[in-house]
Amino acid sequence: MRLIDCYDALLLDLDGTVWMGDEPIPHAVDALAGCATRKMYVTNNASRGPEAVATKLEGMGFEATRDDILTSAMAAIDMCKRELPSGKVLVLGTESFVDLVREAGYEPVNSADENPVAVLQGHNPDTGWRQLSEASLAIHNGALFFASNLDATLPQERGLMVGNGSMVEAVVHATGVRPHSAGKPEAEMFHDAARRMGSRVPLAVGDRLNTDIAGGNAAGMDTLHVMTGVSGHHALVAAVPAERPSLIATDLRDLYSPLESLKPGRQGDFSAMVKGNDVVLAGGRSDSTAMQALRTVLDVVWKHDGPTPTSIIPTSTVAEKVLAEWR
């Protein structure tokens, strides 16, 4: 049975999974265009409002409306609402984040002198020392601290840029206060997305182990890791149990692959065994792939009771060839 036939909804990450910066991930548009399964885009990036995210997706060739988007900014506001139904809120974020805060019934402010009851921090490339200092002052004065997400990096065309989590750490260092985080890897965004869709069997899809996959796992959902963004082959081998996906795909085209073929297990005539601190990878055919080798290795490493092996040792020409493709 195809993977896509086993789930009633896809909870899709954006950065590194569907797009990279301002370009769609190769094959993503066609893969999702042929997918009748309901989709919601669940993103830790709080720099755009849901309408802008939908517009960007449509501009790349995807089908999306505002109702198909759940951002960590929206989740952070919901979290703040449960603690503080009203009041002044100091917002570190884009104008779209400020608009969402206002729509939720709060009064957005820019200064700690306004005595805000909370600080909400989301990604904004223009955030600088003055804004971070106002947040620090407000928190020292008793404001509660909420962050849209704690991603240390943000995948862009040029590489990994500074993410919201890195900016949040500046405020944490200045105040000693850690924020309540609404975004991945917390489970709440995934539960919220499933509730909005009425989904009973959702699949969480992403490229980053410590947010997308850890969050989906924490929510009790099956998880699909795609190799198009942050976490590569070696990161999967070293992954702690909470960050191990149920399924491993090359990209979104594998939504149409047989479910069993995407699980860790022996594939491509490879064999693997743990030997001391290493994994020995042998065998393979001329048409065997790097992903088949990866699933073969993961099967033995993730079942291993001892310390995680530190290196992969190829003992065949094919194994050596495919390992050179790992990142």
TrEMBL record:
InterPro entries: HAD-like_sf (IPR036412), HAD-SF_hydro_IIA (IPR006357), HAD_sf (IPR023214). Its EC number is 3.1.3.74. The keyword Mitochondrion does not apply. GO terms for molecular function: pyridoxal phosphatase activity. Pfam families: Hydrolase_6, Hydrolase_like. Keywords: Hydrolase. PANTHER family: 4-NITROPHENYLPHOSPHATASE-RELATED, D-GLYCEROL 3-PHOSPHATE PHOSPHATASE. NCBIfam families: HAD-SF-IIA. This is HAD hydrolase, family IIA. It comes from Corynebacterium glucuronolyticum ATCC 51866.
